[in-house]
């Protein structure tokens, strides 16, 4: 890594570039709220506030009724519901907008720590946003992305200054992180990697293959703060049971083959190729260094596993690769500070205008947001079921379970997006039944259903029109409602024939 001192003068075009980078957030996230999981998160937040407690058993599905369930995102769910209560569907949209802006600022600041040239830092930030764009949705893992970036800021600050005091910020950070999303475990793993690097240099203080030991964080404070951070993750309503839930989720491998957001990247969109490009660039630059720094190299290696296993976790390797890339560029020393309050104000106005324009074009008004939901979910069908007073059991598809938990709380769903509740086998059976595969008629849960809310276009919806066990009660362009013709025992007898 070479160093050369240059004068960095202010260029008016930087202002335009800054506005474009942050306006990209508007293009990526200002859109109707149609994520299938946001609905059950809203219902969980409402349940927690109504009961003034967190749930220990599942209150939302007929299958999970009475079975253990840990709402490990409980604080996020309360926040999301409060935003909805105050602002309607605009509340979750504001959550994803401000979370993504905070992520962008944190990423830009982290890159600028190593790359002082504005154009390069802004370009790398834009690449990171583009790579992470598909996962920037109203989900609790936005907190994980932000807190992961903050953690890296703190650790790099300690590495550079050799002052351990910033580490004291980590236990409070993990205390909050453990209450909003379970991927705080990634943050603990990063701390373990930093400890491994410091311990390595204790054993091998001088090595021709690795960078100087002076660049690693002090070992003893790092170990103590890591232990304190682990203890801080127990400051949740679930205490040690939170880790039991994490272990249960980790054991569920089948969902990575069936749930789209958990599947590996299919490289059918530009963002996937951007992730691959950044990963390869980061790996190449790690190997190209004359003396490797273990921790940044381990960060990239660690990020590869979750990112290429599940498209939802691409942010881990993207952030790690950007750090390595920024640290590998030649260092310049800027003599002029381009950031001034007038320039920030002008940029802020430009960014705000971009958000307004995108919001108008995509119609994120209350009416527009509701219309978008009605195109994706059985809004009218649910109203019919509610008005006519149909009783359960309810049979519904996986992707609509979250919405029906929210919209029809009086009817427990049979299936929803909480994979840790339903398990790999039930999810696979539900998907097979809804696609009309050979075993659909023998589905035991379908056989006992009194109401079926079915998406138009799926195989089971067409088959139910011919099924003597059900009659069509309502249909529109989005959904059809079928109700049972006779008693469950009679229908089971028909199935046996």
Question: In words, what does this structure look like?
Answer:
The chain has 497 residues and is mainly α. The protein has two domains: 3-33 and 89-353, no CATH class; 372-496, no CATH class. Helices cover 61% and strands 5% of the residues. A four-stranded mixed sheet has the order 3-4-6-5. A two-stranded parallel ribbon has the order 1-2. A hairpin with a 3-residue loop joins strand 5 (470-475) and strand 6 (479-484). Helix 12 (270-288) crosses helix 14 (314-328). It is globular and about 80 Å long. The relative contact order is 0.13. Residues 1-6 and 490-497 have low confidence and may be disordered.
How is this fold's topology laid out?
Layout: E1 3-5, H1 12-29, H2 38-51, H3 74-87, H4 90-114, H5 118-132, H6 141-161, H7 170-180, H8 184-203, H9 219-232, H10 241-251, H11 255-258, H12 270-288, H13 294-309, H14 314-328, E2 331-333, H15 341-361, H16 366-376, H17 379-388, E3 394-395, H18 398-407, H19 419-434, H20 444-447, E4 451-455, H21 459-464, E5 470-475, E6 479-484, H22 488-496
Parallel strand pairs: 1-2, 3-4
Antiparallel strand pairs: 4-6, 5-6
The SSE string, one letter per element, is EHHHHHHHHHHHHHHEHHHEHHHEHEEH
List the strand order in the largest sheet. 3-4-6-5
Strand content: 5-15%
How many runs of DSSP E, i.e. beta strands? 6
Overall geometry? globular
Distance between the termini: 76 Å
What is the count of helical runs?
Answer: 22
Mean pLDDT: 89
Largest beta sheet, briefly?
Answer: 4 strands, mixed
Radius of gyration (Å): 26 Å
Instruction: Extract low-pLDDT stretches.
Output: 1-6, 490-497
Number of domains: 2
Residues in helices, as a percent range: 55-70%
Secondary structure category? mainly alpha
């Amino acid at each position: 890594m070479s160093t050369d001192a240059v004068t960095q003068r202010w260029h008016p075009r930087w202002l335009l570039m800054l506005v474009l980078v942050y306006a990209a957030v508007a293009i990526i996230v200002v859109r109707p709220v149609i994520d299938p999981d946001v609905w059950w998160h809203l219902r969980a937040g409402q349940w927690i506030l109504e009961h003034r407690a967190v749930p220990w058993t599942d209150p939302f599905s007929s299958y999970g009724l009475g079975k253990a369930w840990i709402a490990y995102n409980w604080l996020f769910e309360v926040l999301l519901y409060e935003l909805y209560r105050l602002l309607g569907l605009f509340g979750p949209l504001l959550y994803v907008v401000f979370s993504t802006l905070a992520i962008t600022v944190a990423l830009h600041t982290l890159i600028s720590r190593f790359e002082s040239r504005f154009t390069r830092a802004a370009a790398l930030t834009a690449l990171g946003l583009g790579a992470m764009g598909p996962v920037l949705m109203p989900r609790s893992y936005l907190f994980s992305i932000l807190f992961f970036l903050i953690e890296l800021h703190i650790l790099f600050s300690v590495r550079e200054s050799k002052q351990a005091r910033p580490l004291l910020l980590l236990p409070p950070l993990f205390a909050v992180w453990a209450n909003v999303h379970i991927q705080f475990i990634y943050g603990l793993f990063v701390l373990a990697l930093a400890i491994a690097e410091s311990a390595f240099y204790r054993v091998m203080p001088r090595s021709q293959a690795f960078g100087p030991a002076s660049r690693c964080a002090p070992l003893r404070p790092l170990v103590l703060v890591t232990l304190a951070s682990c203890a801080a993750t127990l400051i949740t309503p679930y205490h040690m049971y939170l880790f039991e839930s994490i272990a249960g989720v980790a054991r569920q491998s089948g969902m990575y083959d069936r749930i789209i957001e958990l599947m590996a990247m299919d490289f059918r969109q530009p963002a996937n190729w951007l992730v691959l490009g950044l990963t390869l660039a980061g790996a190449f630059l790690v190997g190209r260094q004359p003396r490797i720094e273990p921790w940044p190299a381990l960060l990239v290696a660690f990020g590869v596993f979750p990112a290429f296993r599940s498209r939802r976790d691409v942010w881990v390797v993207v952030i790690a690769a950007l750090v390595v890339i920024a640290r590998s560029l030649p260092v310049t020393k800027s003599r002029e500070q381009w950031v001034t309050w007038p320039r920030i104000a002008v940029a802020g106005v430009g960014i705000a205008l971009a958000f307004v324009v995108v919001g108008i074009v995509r119609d994120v008004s209350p009416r527009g947001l509701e219309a978008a939901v009605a195109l994706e979910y059985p809004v009218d069908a649910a109203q019919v079921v509610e008005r006519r007073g149909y009783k359960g059991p309810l049979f519904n598809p996986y992707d609509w379970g979250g919405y029906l938990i929210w919209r029809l709380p009086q009817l427990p769903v049979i299936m929803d997006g909480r994979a840790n509740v339903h398990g790999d086998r039930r999810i696979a059976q539900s998907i097979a039944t809804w696609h009309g595969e050979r075993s659909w008629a023998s589905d035991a849960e379908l056989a006992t259903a009194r109401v079926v809310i079915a998406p138009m276009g799926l195989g089971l919806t067409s088959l139910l029109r011919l099924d003597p066990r059900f009659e069509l009660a309502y249909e529109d362009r989005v959904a059809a409602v079928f109700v049972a013709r006779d008693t469950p025992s009679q229908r089971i007898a028909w199935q046996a024939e």
